[in-house]
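Exercise 3.2. Students should predict the tertiary structure of the chain below and write it as structure tokens, then compare their answer with the key that follows.

Predict this chain's 3D structure.
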Amino acid sequence: MKWLTKTLHDERRALERARRRFVIKPNEKHLHDVRTAGRRFRSLLEDVADLAPCERLLRRVKKAAAATDAARDATIILRLLEAGLDAGETELARPLLEELQVEEAAATERARKALRRVRFDS
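Answer key:
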């Protein structure tokens, strides 16, 4: 049980650190770190639910993941489009790219605001 307590504590801290970094400096890497730490922590909480029930904490982790979905989706769509364009298509796609960049920035800001209100260290 000591191992479980320590592991839960460590994963919780890792998610909180990732959350703080994203709130301070919202960028693609920090968003990825929040999502990765969140998935890892959520999986652990679900796996040990019989031994250490933490329903409220699990709901918070899921809520944080949901808050980042749109930002991640916008980033992926933008990166895929950018990677799929050849030199001749770039100018033609510029209005769409600009619109997607605006949406990515807005979704990232919404995620940042949502994660400012969620804490994992208490």
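Discussion points: The CA atoms of residues 21 and 56 lie 23 Å apart. The mean pLDDT is 93.
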